[in-house]
Amino acid sequence: MSPTHEEYLEAKGRKPILMFVQQEVEREDDQTKFISEASAWQEGHFRAGFKTADELRDLVTRAVHDYQLANAAGPLDNAVLSTTALGLLPKAQRNSQGAPSLWVSIAGGPQQRILRPAELESADLTEAIHQQALFGVPKLFSSSKGLKVSIDGAALLLEQERGASIRLEENGSILLGLRMDREDASGRNGFGAFAVIEENVLRELGSALAFAAWLLDKIDPTQRITHVALAASIEASDYMGWRTQAEQDASPNSGTMRMGSGQQPPTSFTDRPRAALRFQAAELAEDLMVPLRRQMKA
């Protein structure tokens, strides 16, 4: 197999391909088979023929220009991204008596369509997301619960009953819902009788950011999304406050109750370059957690 053939197979299905085939030349059998193979695969590449080096130069220049126009993204607007991320958060169910929920949304920019409708509905994409949520590090889904998959408008939705949920939109926006009754490594869940636990909120934020980084790499390996805005909210009963794990251990069956205010749930947001999801995940989790703590302790 030639180096060009190997490079083609590496790029196929993962990157855009612009293919230029020299005409009116004799080819070896392997070269002919390679061109037939590449020509038969119609999705994801552009093809043109050339005879001279000058003609090839002009074709490449034009094809790259046309590709850039076809895939042009709008300008990066951080304010719009932040508004989008906040808008993804669900409206809270007030006075909930169940376990608290943590919602984390990620909006990417420059805003553009990342997935075609057929790609969003692909069984392969659903399976990859499901497997990562079940067996990846960190896990979002429980192997003991079933999975419901649906298409909601222009979004793919994977959810478990009384469990985590994943919403992915065509523009690459992500909404993750995590219940705070998931047990940590020591077997403790994320909330006490009267409060959510700070360390577990931070842990779940980290899990959400790590999963979002994986999912963005899955759907956008060529890094068309360069910037992300993130928002988080906690949906909990009005009486629930905020405690550290040390405070909870010292007094597990008592605490200070909040008075229901009827206002919006505690919410925070920030924005960073996309690479921060991978290289500054701990800082991002803290940036989202601290405003939530302030609001719940106020």
Structural account:
With 298 residues, the chain is α+β, with helices and mostly antiparallel strands. It has 2 domains: 3-70, no CATH class; 78-297, no CATH class. The protein is 39% helix and 21% strand. It contains 10 helices and 11 strands. The strands form 3 sheets. A 7-stranded antiparallel β-sheet has the order 4-5-6-7-3-9-11. A two-stranded parallel sheet has the order 1-2. It has a two-stranded parallel sheet with strand order 8-10. Strand 6 and strand 7 form a beta hairpin. Helix 7 crosses helix 10 (281-297). The chain is elongated, with a radius of gyration of 24 Å. The model has no long low-confidence stretch (mean pLDDT 87).
Structure in a nutshell:
The protein is an alpha+beta fold. The protein has ten helices and eleven strands.
